[in-house]
Amino acid sequence: MDVSTVTIKDVAALAGVSPATASRVLSGNPATSPQARERVAAAVKQLEFQPNAQARSLRSTRTDSIGLLVSDVRNPFFADLAHTVEQSALAAGYVTLLGNANERTDQQDRYLNSLISRRVDGIIVAPQGGDSASIRALIKRRIPTIFVDRVIADIDLPSVTTNSDTGIRQAVAHLAERGHTRIGYIAGPQSISTGRERYSAFTRAIAATGLSADPALIYVGDFQAASGSAAVHALLSLTDAPTAIIAADSLMAVGAVAMLQRLDLRIGEDIALVAFDDIEWFSLLTPALSVITHSVEDMGRIAVQLLLQVIDGQHPQSVVLPSELIIRASSAGAAHATLPPSSRKN
Amino acid sequence: MDVSTVTIKDVAALAGVSPATASRVLSGNPATSPQARERVAAAVKQLEFQPNAQARSLRSTRTDSIGLLVSDVRNPFFADLAHTVEQSALAAGYVTLLGNANERTDQQDRYLNSLISRRVDGIIVAPQGGDSASIRALIKRRIPTIFVDRVIADIDLPSVTTNSDTGIRQAVAHLAERGHTRIGYIAGPQSISTGRERYSAFTRAIAATGLSADPALIYVGDFQAASGSAAVHALLSLTDAPTAIIAADSLMAVGAVAMLQRLDLRIGEDIALVAFDDIEWFSLLTPALSVITHSVEDMGRIAVQLLLQVIDGQHPQSVVLPSELIIRASSAGAAHATLPPSSRKN
DNA sequence: CTGAAAGCGCTTACAG
DNA sequence: CTGAAAGCGCTTACAG
């Protein structure tokens, strides 16, 4: 007998009960006799029965699965987030279907539609860009959904985000204290909430400390490594170049490090660098990178919590997590004037 | 009308056709009239109809989804693999459900069972450890399955793996040429095929070059960072410590780097280091890390290709990809005697 | 505690 | 090219 075609009927027949009873035993319904439980269990084992999740959820409308849509799996922050979400969900009995938007709205829409078609019980999404038809569709269908890390401005859904203000303020204050007056900022895309928020946190911090608010010190990147490299090159080509740089995410920081190395600049001496997002690797660089840290574990765990509450019919409050500066060698030194790339070997 | 309850019957009613015709239009069956196509399309749009994938696959036995089980999403190699698999699958019209075994057999089994229940069309798996009931179940059920990166010894399934021999031989030869005679090796777990294979490639290379085959030079780790740190500490505590170390994966290499830094050893001068797996970050370290590279893009792309062939009823040959040494500063210097940790500040 | 029956939302021979 | 009908593998009121 082809084991792949074993159905609950086969189990029921072997156990000598009706499919209904077999189903009850399988789903842990207490209205079953010990004998029935025993015999069904034996039959399941003997036939290696695996219930068909499709059929089950077609009838019961539950799938015991959630969707997680991240912006970019290759970004260590989102890889870590995927990991914690998945572990938390597993502990609650849910399987996580992971989708990767690849920082593109079209792929986000494709995955979201696919998750809708699969009738996941809920979705955790780190949304791309601005408005999106597929996210509106989630709301229209009343599919339990929460935002993580990022939000979409006029869509009112529970979320877990980071208050970037504290960490960025601490970073700017710290750099000011080390004598930096012109701090460059590599911003994230302004179509993404974290990009906007960290940007405004930076400008507020600059204003509060009375440092140069020269708009030329701000370079808007796209949260990917290449834009971090481009940013460093542009910022250091200024006549009055910054002596310190803050990057709004880890990938752009990676690009910044690569370009600084290519320009033969010594990080922490010739120029200070601080990255948003604390990635394990940053502490291994020479010098170790100062970072603005926020807890990806908390974010993932709380995201699952909130989603389960929404699935349960509740209306949980959004949660905002703190951020904090960790000072390492890349920003520990005093400010020095930075030479433009053109005057150095490249 | 609650948009989430729109079914194909509603679409058919609005379009003035039968559900059968609506279904044919939806699935692109050519046996449909232009009028039917047009009116169904209009109804779908107006009602924002999303077909229920569960119901569809219950009847048609296809789900247009594949499963990918990786060993550890937080390992950049597997994150990259997930990315390329997903992109290739998407191009072929499949959605990828990603599961994370977290280097644990029990989680692997849980996900595999869940993927079976969801009736994915095929599964790509980087298997944990040795034999596994859930992997045997895949075969019994004749679920198209292929191995990627790792294999299980006596299970005969198509696979895409790396021939680690070339790269490791090049690495050993390169280190020998630089004057190293005692090369330490941080092995992966011997329960995993890549762990075993790279280990034997190393011992073969050592034998071929006539270097020290002292068993004390080999430390067996678990492919995680912490074991790389422990390995470095153990190897450098030897009376006759190695002057060069090869780590069998990127995570153990990260641990090795962290420990070498903690011991205040200068990589590339006091001790040479080579890592298996080429991770973007490795070139940013100071000094940049020499690596044994193999193409994760090819691996992911080919894995999807093979799986589609298996789904199509074919019996594709396994593919073995090449590996190659990339020499950077971490191994460029000449060999020096290495002092044990006890004689240094820690 | 149990079984017969209906139905979840689709698809697919079958007949026309 | 189209529709009525059966059925995919489950679950769940309903009646006993």
List the helices and strands and how they pair.
The structure is a homodimer of 346-residue chains.
Chain A: H1 8-15, H2 19-26, H3 34-47, H4 53-60, E1 65-70, H5 76-91, E2 95-100, H6 105-117, E3 122-125, H7 133-140, E4 145-148, E5 159-162, H8 164-177, E6 183-187, H9 193-209, E7 218-220, H10 225-236, E8 244-247, H11 250-262, E9 272-276, E10 290-293, H12 296-311, E11 319-321, E12 324-326
Parallel strand pairs in A: 1-2, 1-3, 3-4, 4-5, 5-11, 6-7, 6-8, 8-9, 9-10
Antiparallel strand pairs in A: 10-12
Helix pairs in contact in A: 1-2, 1-3, 2-3, 5-12, 6-7, 8-9, 10-11
Chain A binds a DNA duplex (16 and 16 nucleotides) through residues 7-9, 17-21, 23-24, 26-27, 31-33, 36, 51-52, 54-61.
